[in-house]
Amino acid sequence: MTETPNTGPSGTDPAAPAAPAATTAAPTAPTVSVVGPGEGETVLLGTTRMRILEDGGTTGHRLGIAESVIAPHTPGPPQHRHAGHDEGFYIVSGSVRFTVGAEEHDAVAGTLVVVPPGAPHTFANVRGEPAVMLSTFTPDPYVRYFRELRDLHAGSEAVTPEAQLRLMHRYATEPAAAPAPEPS
After folding, report:
1. Cα distance between residue 89 and residue 56, in whole Å
2. Closest to 88 (Cα-Cα) out of 117, 109, 61, 59
């Protein structure tokens, strides 16, 4: 005669820990974003065409990415600083002049510029050919700033410096002449 271990009604050892309850929803695989040439959301900001490649929806809002095509002889924004995010700029083609405080850097294709929170900066295309750069925003909320800036300029009323400053302030950004904003 063969002995059988003491088992409960389900055929399991009653001394064994209970199995976790089964879940009804299968885990979902992470979503992969693929944005092809000419795809993505286009935001026109004066003579600069920005294409939002990643608005943070795929990255848990940790990262935003945009491609900007800057027309020749395009001045950039006033020198400013961010408290809430890092900004990265990779020059794909052409040349972009970065002003960081009193220093100027002419960044040519293949150059990466990383601006941490609190660092005063601006950029411009001072040359006679278009420049293309990829920008990163970590975390991503600053992508929404560009959408709101576009909408502000598309409105029927004239854009005042005060309205632009209010928009910048909502995204923890201040003119470089102002005290550095508190980190958010």
Report:
1. 17
2. 117
Burial 20-34 (b: 16+ CB within 10 A, else e): eeeeeeeeeeeeeee
Helix 142-154 × helix 161-170 angle, to 10°: 160
Question: Are 51 and 71 spatial neighbours (Cβ–Cβ below 8 Å)?
Answer: no
Structure-token match 């293309």, residue found: 132
Interval 149-165: pLDDT, tens? 999 888 777 778 888 88
Closest CA to 174 of 63, 76, 77: 77
Q: How far apart are CA 147 and CA 50, in angstroms?
A: 10
Tell me the two tokens of residue 120: 């005063």
Mean pLDDT of 5-32: 57
**Which pair of structure tokens corresponds to residue 169?**
């302030």
